[in-house]
Specification:
single chain, mainly alpha, Pentatricopeptide repeat-containing protein, RNA binding, PPR_rpt, TPR-like_helical_dom_sf
Length: 163
């Protein structure tokens, strides 16, 4: 609640009073609140500090932890941090999550890495490509001004067939 009202400092103070360092849930709330709360550079730095602290304390990161971290990297854009996180997802067996794949698609497009975004998209089985995944692709192509490529790939046509 503190972060949604724009008070990250109050949220951190409240978080420090909690005695549940090993539970991922309060950490995820803090990560998500930091991502939502504002300024691009500050957001990225704060999320990275929290993420690093979680890893240092041995907190078991989950899909929601990583989705917040990847979203903050996409906002910066922090391509190399995103690549390292993608590798960590593969190592921890979390790369099969459609939520994380959609976050990675968004990250790679925002970093201008269209081929990597397309590669992640291709890893998602056709029957699992929902409106959110398609939206990330359309938004990413738009962000990179690749309308001609979009037309060549016939994503609109494919999306109509699959949905």
């Amino acid at each position: 609640m503190c972060t949604s009202c724009g008070s990250l400092e109050d949220a951190l103070k409240l978080f420090d009073e909690l005695l549940c360092e090993s539970s991922v849930y309060p950490w995820n709330v803090l990560l998500r609140g930091t991502v939502v709360s504002g300024g691009r550079k500050r957001q990225y730095i704060d999320v990275l500090k929290t993420y690093s602290k979680m890893r240092e304390l041995g907190v078991e990161l989950n899909v929601y932890s990583f989705s917040s971290v990847i979203k903050s990297f996409a906002a910066d854009p922090a391509f190399y941090q995103g690549l390292k996180t993608h590798a960590l997802l593969i190592k921890n067996g979390l790369v099969d999550s459609d939520i994380l794949k959609t976050c990675l698609i968004d990250l790679y497009f925002k970093c201008g890495k269209v081929k990597l975004a397309r590669s992640v998209f291709e890893e998602i089985p056709e029957r699992e490509r929902d409106v959110v995944v398609w939206g990330a692709m359309l938004s990413g192509f738009s962000h990179n001004m690749l309308w001609r490529m979009l037309k060549k790939l016939s994503l609109f046509w494919l999306m109509e067939l699959k949905l």
